[in-house]
């Protein structure tokens, strides 16, 4: 692994400070609150609005991307807190390589999925505005096409960044990028 062995005790000391642990608890609380908000919004509002199928599909994809990010982020924060409190060996303060690669890639997939879905929603709304007379009758497949494009582009973005993530670096946090 490419981290300097002399830095390991210093990094472990930082990861055990009350400020680091408090920041981890705050971010964990935020991500759990995000899970609750996404689930509540999806459950409460999915049948209240009469949205066109295209925007509804993109909205569901946005909910799924937010939910994926919040769940995996919460799991990684819980694991990082566990390491911070219950690991005595400084060398074990780093995340296991497989856990880091999986959690980082899923978090990145959720984040880029959110941005790409929002861009697709803007495109869908522009098409709906420009073609206002014929949009309701003729563009039912646009939502499926945009969802497919979002998933393909998000997967490609993740694939292009995988080489750096799968490197030989030791990481202490799932959202860190080498």
UniProtKB/TrEMBL annotation:
Give TM segment ranges: 25-45, 57-79, 99-120, 141-162
Source taxon at top rank: Eukaryota
Name under which the protein is recorded: Uncharacterized protein
Q: How does it sit in the membrane?
A: Multi-pass membrane protein
Name the principal localization, coarsely classed: membrane
What molecular function does GO assign, one term? G protein-coupled receptor activity
Which GO CC terms are listed, alphabetically?
membrane
Similarity-based family: Belongs to the nematode receptor-like protein srb family.
> Cellular location of this protein?
Membrane
Q: What single Pfam family name could you report for this chain, choosing any that match?
A: 7TM_GPCR_Sra
GO biological process per UniProt: sensory perception of chemical stimulus
Q: Which InterPro entries does the annotation name?
A: 7TM_GPCR_serpentine_rcpt_Sra (IPR000344), 7TM_GPCR_serpentine_rcpt_Srb (IPR002184)
């Amino acid at each position: 692994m490419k981290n300097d062995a002399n830095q390991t005790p210093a990094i472990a000391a930082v990861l055990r400070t009350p400020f680091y642990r408090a920041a981890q608890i705050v971010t964990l609380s935020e991500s759990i609150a995000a899970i609750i908000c996404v689930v509540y919004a999806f459950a409460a509002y999915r049948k209240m609005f009469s949205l066109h199928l295209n925007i509804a599909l993109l909205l569901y994809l946005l909910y799924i991307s937010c939910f994926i990010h919040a769940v995996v982020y919460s799991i990684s924060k819980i694991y990082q807190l566990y390491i911070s409190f219950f690991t005595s060996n400084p060398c074990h303060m780093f995340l296991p390589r497989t856990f880091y690669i999986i959690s980082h890639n899923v978090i990145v997939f959720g984040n880029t999925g959110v941005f790409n879905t929002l861009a697709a929603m803007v495109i869908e709304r522009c098409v709906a505005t420009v073609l206002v007379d014929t949009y309701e009758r003729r563009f039912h497949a646009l939502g499926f096409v945009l969802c497919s494009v979002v998933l393909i582009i998000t997967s490609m973005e993740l694939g292009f960044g995988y080489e750096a993530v799968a490197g030989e670096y030791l990481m202490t946090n799932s959202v860190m990028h080498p």
